[in-house]
Amino acid sequence: SEDELHRRIIAAKSALGERVRILGHFYQRDEIVQHADFVGDSFMLAQAAKAHPEAEAFVFCGVHFMAETADILSGPDQAVILPNLAAGCSMADMATIDQVEDCWRELVEVLGDEPDASGRQPVIPVTYMNSSAAIKAFCGRNGGIVCTSSNARTVLEWAFERGQRVVFFPDQHLGRNTAKAMGIEEDRMPLWRSHLPRGGNSEADLRESRVILWNGFCSVHKRFTVGQIERARAQFPGVRVIVHPECPAAVVEAADGSGSTEYIRKEIEAAKPGDVIAVGTEINLVNRLQEQHPELTVFCLDPVVCPCSTMYRIHPAYLAWTLESLVAGDAPNRIVVDGSVAEDSRVALERMLAARP
Ligand code: 13P
Ligand code: SF4
């Protein structure tokens, strides 16, 4: 039963003490979040993995790419464990390393690889954190960088200091929203479709481009619509609408603010009693924020409950099992990134950590 799992998790955790740290993403269900030593957005979780050299192991309650990142940034003797190996991210799966390398070859064919008079490369690869370690490593090897939704603009500015344009993997929406906020025109952001030569773009399109967008998206965030925002505004005059930048551009434009899950949490923290806030992001976070703030009205823009199904795969039974295995001296479900993939992806991640203002 739920109660029994709860008791087992507490018992195993206290037997392990500070040797094991539980990290949890904001989208995790409450039954997991309540046991986490640290809860955050994906940027904060990457920092946390770097900041606890005393821990022997991290139990990462989140999705696969986040656990990979934790392994890359943590020490060589620290184990990173993903309680359920089936917790992936469908957006991250929308770009494979082979597709990315094919895209790069075609871009170099069209744009060349010689820097311009001011030393800027023809194109800098930027990958959203929501991608495989292999793609982060590709970026590290090719003068590129990683970003999260909390620093995408800073990272794009970093990239434009070094390149004439950017190719952005895999979330078209975060790429487009960030570039638009920087004043880049939409007709200079061609979409790359990996099944077509040159993504289906003309050579002129690619030469004139500023940001080449990969054709990926988050199936949770693409459900949000401008119609939902209009209905919320009609029903609650004065409502504040905040959304995650993985939402389509029209939704971000119709909202009052957009940002990472930590930005959303801070916005709720800063609200005044009686405020009404409609949120465009995953339901576990929205419901938790409402529970923590009974003095506010906080609701999800999408009336059909929309959990991230893969985040949800971290069930308390898996957490109990992993912690008990650690007590018994086993470390199951380890996520290990090694060799040149670890080395090169660390370069791209460290560039991101250093680029933060
Ligand atoms: P954050 O970086 O905002 O936590 O987002 C991660 C994510 O997967 C959102 O869907
Ligand atoms: Fe991936 Fe979307 Fe889930 Fe975030 S919410 S982990 S982007 S599927």
Q: What can you tell me about this protein's structure?
A:
- It is found in: Cytoplasm.
- Pathway: Cofactor biosynthesis; NAD(+) biosynthesis; quinolinate from iminoaspartate: step 1/1.
- Keywords: 4Fe-4S, Cytoplasm, Iron, Iron-sulfur, Metal-binding, Pyridine nucleotide biosynthesis, Transferase.
- It contains 15 helices and 13 strands.
- The protein has 357 residues and is α/β, with parallel strands linked by helices.
- It folds into three domains: 114 residues, NadA-like (Rossmann fold, 3-Layer(aba) Sandwich), CATH 3.40.50.10800; 126 residues, NadA-like (Rossmann fold, 3-Layer(aba) Sandwich); 80 residues, Rossmann fold (3-Layer(aba) Sandwich).
- Helix 11 links the parallel strand 10 and strand 11.
- The chain is globular, with a radius of gyration of 21 Å.
- The model has no long low-confidence stretch (mean pLDDT 97).
- 1,3-dihydroxyacetonephosphate binds next to helix 3.
How many E strands?
13
Largest sheet: 5 strands, parallel
List the bound ligands: 1,3-dihydroxyacetonephosphate, iron/sulfur cluster
Strand order of the largest sheet: 6-5-7-9-8
Which range best describes the helical content: under 10%, 10-25%, 25-40%, 40-55%, 55-70% or over 70%? 40-55%
Low-confidence regions: none
Spatial gap, N to C terminus: 47 Å
The topology string of helices and strands comes to HEHEHEHEHEHEHEHEHEHEHEHEHEHH
Describe the global form: globular
Give the name of the CATH superfamily of the largest domain: NadA-like
What share of the residues does DSSP label as strand, in percent?
5-15%
How many helices? The count is 15
- Integer average pLDDT: 97
Counted up, domains total 3
Named CATH architecture of the largest domain: 3-Layer(aba) Sandwich
